[in-house]
Specification:
The protein has about 160 residues and is mostly helical. The protein is built from nine helices and no strands. Helix 3 runs antiparallel to helix 4 and helix 3 packs parallel to helix 6. The relative contact order is 0.20.
Length: about 160
């Protein structure tokens, strides 16, 4: 796999703005653990190898259990996730693959039971950001692991 375009170099100001949005969303009211799960799950759904690689490493560095990461594709059947995490994953999935008629009321009701309006807004921005990253990295075939040293991900010990 070879990266098609170095999008950071071609549009540095846009890159910086997307980084800023991602960082701001991560500093919202949603727990970092949920943020990692959201980033990994959306990246899996979008087939973004670069982002799956990066966010699994970040999650591991921050103490996420490997078994929970392995269970993400089957989170509905897994007993390893809290109700709040399940709501965040449902929200992630519905926003990542929007149904033809929008977000169903039952999914909205599920997330509102678990998240305040502010937290749900922060979560939505986090989902939006990872989907943007997925799309640019898939489009330009960013190579998994190629940014490990720059982002300190080599500390995960998963090379």
């Amino acid at each position: 796999m070879t990266q098609r375009i170095d999008y950071q170099q071609q549009a540095p100001e846009l890159f910086k703005k997307l980084v800023a949005i991602s960082m701001q969303a991560a500093q919202g009211g949603v727990e970092a653990t949920i943020g990692h799960l959201v980033e990994i799950r959306a990246s899996q759904m979008n087939g973004c190898a670069f982002c799956v690689d990066m966010h699994i490493k970040q999650a591991m560095i921050h103490g996420e259990r490997p078994l929970r990461i392995h269970h993400l594709p089957v989170w509905r059947e897994s007993p390893l996730f809290s109700e709040r995490e399940r709501a965040a994953l449902a929200w992630t999935e519905v926003l990542t693959q929007l149904p033809p008629h929008g977000v169903p009321d039952d999914i909205y009701a599920l997330v509102r039971e678990q998240f305040s309006e502010k937290d749900l807004t922060d979560l939505t921005y986090a989902v939006m950001a990872i989907n943007a990253w997925n799309r640019i990295n898939v489009a330009f075939t960013s190579v998994p692991g190629s940014a490990d040293k720059a982002y300190g991900l080599d500390k995960a010990g998963l090379a």
